[in-house]
Amino acid sequence: MAMTLDLFDPQTPEPWLEREADGVFVLRRFASARAKDLLDSIAEIAGQASFRQMVTPGGHRMSAAMTCAGPLGWVTDRAGYRYQRQDPQTGRTWPTMPDGFIQLAENAAEEAGFSGFVPDACLINRYQPGAKMGLHQDRDEQDFAWPIVSVSLGLPIVFQMGGRRRSDKPRRILLEHGDVLVWGGPARLNYHGVLTLKAGDHPLTGPYRYNLTFRRAGE
Ligand code: MD3
Ligand code: FE
């Protein structure tokens, strides 16, 4: 069967841009056409650095399973949150960030007005039904002038976009397969999280939702 690129195929919709706030954009379906490749890469990375549920400094096991790719990886344990070059599970460096990841992150950041974004860390979150991520800030990176680019794959989830303070009432945004969030500027340190993943069966990811977050963590 000949492979053709059909612009009217609902599996490969044309992306569209939604501005949520100053410095915050959702590039709807921006990663749809590349989703299969991204998922193949995730499986390859997980073969070298397996998904694990890390422990917070407070001693709670996170409900999302995580792994990383790139020169730096984000970890948490009883000692704290940090970026480091070694996977604590193996003592080896994290798997290489695939070129397709870097390209996607750079392209998405450019669309949202952040040119020259070169990630040095990709945190991969895997949510199973019941998993969530409470409101938090991402502030372990060195330079908050760089945005964070997040890619949603698989089952949909409700994202909570909070404000500067934890007490600011969050807005709810549904993130679906292929959506890319670019988050920078004055909103970079805003609180955010996701509600509990509901059970489902996605044609490409089965019971899971994956989230890739691309960061510039070092200098
Ligand atoms: C807003 N991940 O990995 S992605 C995280 O769906 C994280 O897995 C969530 O929060 C997830 O830290 C949300 C969207 C996102 C990522 C980073 C941000 C939003 C952000 C950093 C600052 C502000
Ligand atoms: Fe975060």
From TrEMBL:
Molecular functions (GO terms): broad specificity oxidative DNA demethylase activity; ferrous iron binding; methyltransferase activity; oxidative RNA demethylase activity
Binding site for 2-oxoglutarate: N125, R126, Y127, R209, Y210, N211, L212, T213, F214, R215
GO biological process, one term: methylation
InterPro entries cross-referenced by the UniProt entry: Alkb, AlkB-like, AlkB-like_sf, Oxoglu/Fe-dep_dioxygenase_dom
Residue sites binding substrate per the record: W74, Y81, R82, Y83, D140, R166
NCBIfam families named among the record's database cross-references: PRK15401.1
Name of this chain's protein: Alkylated DNA repair protein (DNA oxidative demethylase)
Protein's organism: Marinobacter persicus
Phylogenetic placement of the source organism: Bacteria, Pseudomonadati, Pseudomonadota, Gammaproteobacteria, Pseudomonadales
